[in-house]
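Task: sequence design from structure.
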C-alpha cells in the first residue's frame, strides 16, 4: 500500500469515527420565568419531557402553551 493510499484510508476512518454533537438548545425568552411559574405541575412535567426528548428542536416560543400564555398576558 502506498503512502498516499494509507493516508487516505486513515482519513476515511477518522471521518467515520467522529461523534455527533447536537447543537445547543434554543435560548429561552426573557419572560420564561414568569411563564414557567404560571404552569401547572402536569405542564411543567410536559415541558421537562419535551426538553429531554426533543433537545435542540424544542423551542418554547413556538409551543401552544407559551403562545396562549403570551396572548393572555398582553390582552
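Answer:
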Amino acid at each position: 500500500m502506498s503512502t498516499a493510499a494509507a493516508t487516505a484510508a486513515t482519513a476515511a476512518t477518522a471521518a467515520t469515527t467522529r461523534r455527533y454533537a447536537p447543537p445547543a438548545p434554543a435560548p429561552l425568552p426573557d419572560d420564561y420565568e414568569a411563564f414557567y411559574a404560571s404552569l401547572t405541575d402536569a405542564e411543567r412535567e410536559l415541558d421537562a419531557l419535551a426538553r429531554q426528548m426533543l433537545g435542540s428542536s424544542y423551542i418554547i416560543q413556538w409551543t401552544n402553551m407559551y403562545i396562549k400564555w403570551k396572548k393572555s398576558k398582553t390582552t
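The first helix runs from residue 3 to 16.
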